[in-house]
Structures are given as structure tokens and as C-alpha cells.
Amino acid sequence: MEELEERLKILANELTLAVHKHITRSLLSEHKLLFSFIVCCEILKSKKAISESEWEFFLNIATATNSIKSKQQEINCDHQLKNVAQLESISGAFAGLSDTLLQSTTVLLEIGSFKIFLSLRGENQLLKDNDDSTDLWNKTLTNFQKVVLVKIFQQEMVTLVLKVVIF
């Protein structure tokens, strides 16, 4: 029975790779990342690594645009905090994140070789292999959950982060 399960697993993996390979051949380069991300997420959803509520939140999240003006920064901060509060109600993995963001200056997220520091004060940064600090949120959140946070705080960085997560 174990041998049959292993064979089925290998067959499913090979079929997924073949379908992905053949479909991406016909896609424009700007659509390949999106297709790969969706396939990756569907696989993770089938393994229960991504909850349906987190996926829906990621798809429907409204993000505020960044601006230099201080009034706009306050609005962005408010908007980001509301999104984080909504995330906390959706998934227990985010419980306490809004308190952490309000109390500390930054939250570190590591995704691949990138270290992303998120802040409500507009001090969001993307660094590559510069800092060895660690954070509770970095250890407890999955890569998809980190991508959701990047979308809230730094929407312009989502494409870059997805490339690291998928490939």
C-alpha cells in the first residue's frame, strides 16, 4: 500500500510539472509568474498549508498607495492596521501582530535571501543579506502569510517576493 501511495505521489508531481511546462510555453513572460503562483497556491491549498480564508483575503485585500505626505502616511498606517486586524480575525497565526506593530518599530520577515522590515511608520525596507536579526513572526508565519503582509505594507514588492517564493 505504501508503494502505491508513493507511486501516485510521484505520478501527480510529474503530471503537475508536465502541465506547468506545457502551459507556460504558450504564456507571455509577464503571465508566467502569475500562473506559477496560482498553481503553487492551489497545491498548498490542497495540502491545507494555505487556508481558504487567507487566500480570499490575499485576493481581495485593498491596499493604500504610499505617499511622502505625513497625512497620507497616517491614512496608510490606519489602513495597514485595519488590514492586519482583519488578518488576526481570519487566522490565529497573525494573533497579536497589530500589538507588535504598534509597540515596536519594525517586524522582520525573511523570504528566501531577502529580509523585509515592515513598519507602521513608513520605514519599510527590503534588504538582501545584510542583517542577522531574528523575529518571532519570521519563525511562525509561512511564506504565503509573509507574502500577504508584504502586500499590505509594500505592494510594489510583491512581484519580487513572489519570484523568490516560487522559484
How is this structure best described in words?
The structure is a single chain. By secondary structure, this protein is mostly helical. It has 2 domains: 2-49; 60-166, no CATH class. It is 63% helix and 8% strand. It has helices at 2-26, 29-46, 52-60, 70-90, 97-103, 136-140, 143-153, 158-166, and strands at residues 107-111, 114-118, 125-128. A 3-stranded antiparallel sheet has the order 1-2-3. α2 packs across α8 and α7 packs antiparallel against α8 (158-166). It starts with a helix and ends with a helix.
Task: Name the descriptors.
single chain, 167 residues, mainly alpha, 2 domains, three-stranded antiparallel beta sheet, 3 strands, 8% strand
Summarize the helices and strands and which ones pair or pack.
Elements: H1 2-26, H2 29-46, H3 52-60, H4 70-90, H5 97-103, E1 107-111, E2 114-118, E3 125-128, H6 136-140, H7 143-153, H8 158-166
Main β-sheet: number of strands, strand sense, barrel status?
A: 3 strands, antiparallel
Count of DSSP H/I helices: 8
Taking the alpha carbons of the first and last residues, their distance comes to 33 Å
Specify the helix fraction band: 55-70%
Tally the structural domains.
2
Shape: globular
Q: Given the helix and strand composition, which structural class is it?
A: mainly alpha
Number of strands: 3
Residue windows where pLDDT falls under 50 for at least 5 positions: 64-72, 127-134
Strand content: 5-15%
C-alpha Rg, in Å?
18 Å
Q: What is the H/E order?
A: HHHHHEEEHHH
What is the strand arrangement across the widest sheet? 1-2-3
Mean pLDDT: 81
